[in-house]
Amino acid sequence: MKDRGIKNLPRMLYADSKGRIYDHPYYGMAGFSGNGPSAIAKSDLMPMPEFSKLFYIPDCPPIGVDPSTGEHRVVPEVELEGAPTKCFAVAAFPEAGLVRTHLPAADYSLKRYHLPCGGIRQ
Q: Which residue has the higher pLDDT, 14 or 117?
C-alpha cells in the first residue's frame, strides 16, 4: 500500500443516520476488490457523471484506510459537531454504461437481509 501513497488518499465518504454524506476528516477511501478492501487512489476516481447517485448503506459501518499505518479499519462512528455519531457506508451507483472497479468497503455483518417470503437470512 505504500506505493499508492497512503497519506495522500482521497478521504473516505460516510453518511449519518439521515443519509447526509460527508468526507471523513482522517480515514482514506477504500473499496472492495476481490476478497477484501483495497485503498483507492485519486487516479482511480473520476468526476461523478450526471445521472450517477450516491446512497448510504444503513447498519453497515464503512471501512477506511488509516493513513498513519496503512491498515484497513471499520469506522463505526465519528465525532460530528462535538458528539459521537454513527457512520454508515456510502455506495456509488454510476449511470448506465459505466462500470465500477470497486464495491463499497463496509462491514456487512450487522446487516439483516429480509427475504420476500418473510424469512430472514443473516
A: 14
